[in-house]
Amino acid sequence: xxxxxxxxxxxxVPVTTATxxxxxxxxxxxxxxxxxxxxxxxxxxxPFFKSAFLGIRREIMQNLNNIESRDLExxxxxxxxxxxxxVGSGRNFDFVDRSIKYLAVDPNISVKAKFLDNxxxxxNVELESWILxxxxxMKDVPDDYVDAVVITHVLCSVLDARKVLGxxxxxxxxxxxxxxxxxxxxxxxxxxxxxxxxVDPVWELLTCGCHLSRSTSNAIIESGFSxxxxxxxxxxxxxxxxxxxxxxxxxxxx
Length: 254
Description:
Layout: H1 3-28, H2 30-61, H3 72-76, E1 80-85, E2 100-106, H4 112-119, E3 125-132, E4 146-152, H5 161-171, E5 172-183, H6 191-206, H7 216-221, E6 227-234, E7 243-250
Parallel strand pairs: 1-2, 1-4, 2-3, 4-5
Antiparallel strand pairs: 5-7, 6-7
């Protein structure tokens, strides 16, 4: 065996062993998935994707500027009440141009410290409550309560996207708006979709539940909002994440 082959062997064996052990630990422990995704995986990969999302984040978040609160007290100060599902570290704060009262919903306690640190740097964002919960069950939020819901890169990871969308619609005031951005699966019967499905089991472990191949657009279209503006775009990023939808869904006023 040559020197080159020996070096490769010494590198491949420990790397392969470490990878297998990591995947086994992720598969055995949901808590470990939450900590790993929040403090290792997403901080490592986010810098490679962040710039590609900036334009869409800015476009959808600007819709907050056109909303008038149904809460008279908030209206007097030109503020609105916003709920975000799956807040993470508060990645959308940089695109909020007005005063908001903010409800944060996330099932992962590991992100709370980073979120609070980021929120403290945005004086226009007043935290009303941080709710440790899944989007499928936001029972601590009253019906017809918030002027807007923000949900970005979340429906790919939830257990029941349709139930989350139902909860988003429930907590919105009549005429309230849901702002969304999601990556989705490629069209049916394409090689790209087959590849997404092949990678999905490992990707799901690394990202604490994210699915590359989910058809989220259908769930949004069928969720019963009275108005829907939905756009599709292919972003210049990792191909399996390239296909995105974004837009605004409006709850009926009646």
